[in-house]
Inverse folding.
């Protein structure tokens, strides 16, 4: 009887681990499929790594924002403090409209992305987002390199809680 209960526990733990992994990837895919889509202006930084393959590190225009957009005193917040950035739609891409420590409800005209406050200066805030690394098909790193400074954009899907997932890179017309 003791052996049987040990075997049951083993299979229960195994099933829970598999369900956890499926849940993580399923959540990402659900955000990609049903999340609100926004287009952000970006600049590729480093398209290749000897150890990780082809990927691109992305820097967005919403990474550095004016401190006047913050609704809080940022001078005493610790590094990596969670913040929410409200985005408003511009003509070609979305831009930062506000920075909050509490989640602001999104509207049709404004969406919200969750980030981390990296540092604050007297007139600007540096915020990082979980969508700053994107793995690309092998051998396409050089193609992305040639779009530096030429208007590369990224389509991002946002969950109702501000979680962001990259959908695709949008290349400028050649």
């Amino acid at each position: 009887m003791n052996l049987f209960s040990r075997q049951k526990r083993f299979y229960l733990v195994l099933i829970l681990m598999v369900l956890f992994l499926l849940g993580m990837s399923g959540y990402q895919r659900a955000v990609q499929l049903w999340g609100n889509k926004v287009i952000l202006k970006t600049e590729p930084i480093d398209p290749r790594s000897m150890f990780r393959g082809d990927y691109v590190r992305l820097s967005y225009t919403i990474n550095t924002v004016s401190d006047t957009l913050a609704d809080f005193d940022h001078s005493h917040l610790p590094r990596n403090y969670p913040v929410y950035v409200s985005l408003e739609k511009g003509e070609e891409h979305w831009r930062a409209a506000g920075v909050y420590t509490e989640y602001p409800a999104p509207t049709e005209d404004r969406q919200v992305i969750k980030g981390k406050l990296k540092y604050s200066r007297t007139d600007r805030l540096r915020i990082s987002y979980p969508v700053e690394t994107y793995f690309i098909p092998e051998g396409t790193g050089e193609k992305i390199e040639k779009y530096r400074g030429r208007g590369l954009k990224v389509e991002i899907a946002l969950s109702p809680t501000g979680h962001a997932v990259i959908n695709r890179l949008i290349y400028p017309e050649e």
In short: The longest strand covers residues 36-49. Residues 36-170 form one domain.
